[in-house]
Specification:
With 205 residues, the protein is mainly alpha-helical. It contains 8 helices and 3 strands; from the N terminus they run ααααβββαααα. It has a 3-stranded mixed β-sheet, with helices on one face.
């Protein structure tokens, strides 16, 4: 099916990637895309709906790119979260230059995904405009406690930006369930700061 191939390529997914994500063999994908076999209607509709949902994540990324005046790195969709349970992550090379964003497609709901891509692109913004906050940044899963991880300036700021985006765009305020009152308080203060600051270019899109 031409539509399946078109969406797959827009998402930069290989047929092997689709096998892992949708549990559909590569040979079946090949037959469908080449027109050798017809995709059952109920499967086709479900796949199209899901792939268009994945594309909407890229559309949110483009909006954040404009708001933050950054260049969005390549977003590499992967089937599932890594061993630390992180949904998405900015990947750096040996010289601490951004290579890509890995984004897992086993998210809970689409709004979790939207918040997460905003969060990660705020990290890209930080690396460009406020790199010093990463000098002591510690990755999740490297021995740091959950509380200390969430209290890092880079995390507070990224959570604040993601929360503000969700509130303005969708009228949804993330609850940050499981976060301490201390962390939530710092996030709320940073939301106010971002909303007031001239670096936040919401109306310049």
């Amino acid at each position: 099916m031409i539509r399946l191939k078109e969406l797959r390529e827009k998402l930069s997914l290989s047929q092997a990637d689709c096998e892992k994500i949708f549990n559909i063999p590569v040979r079946t994908w090949q037959n469908w895309e080449e027109g050798k076999r017809k995709t059952p209607a109920y499967i086709y509709d479900a796949l199209i709906k899901k792939m268009e949902e994945y594309l909407s994540i890229l559309e949110i990324a483009k909006e954040c790119e404009k708001i933050l005046s950054i260049k969005c790195p390549k977003i590499k969709f992967v089937p599932e979260k890594d061993e630390t349970g992180v949904l998405a992550k900015v990947v750096l090379d040996m010289n601490k230059k951004i290579k890509r964003i890995n984004f897992a497609l086993d998210y809970g709901n689409i709004y979790d995904a939207y918040f997460t891509i905003c969060h990660e692109l705020r990290h890209v913004y930080q690396l460009k405009y406020n790199n010093q906050i990463f000098e002591k940044y510690i990755e999740k899963g490297t021995g740091i406690s959950t509380e200390d991880y969430n209290l890092q300036e880079a995390e507070i700021d990224a959570n604040a930006f993601g929360s503000l985006y969700m509130q303005i765009s969708f009228g949804i305020k993330p609850l940050f369930l499981g976060y301490s009152d201390n962390v939530k308080g710092k996030i709320n203060k940073q939301i106010e700061k971002i909303a007031r600051g001239i670096e936040y270019r919401w109306n310049s899109q």
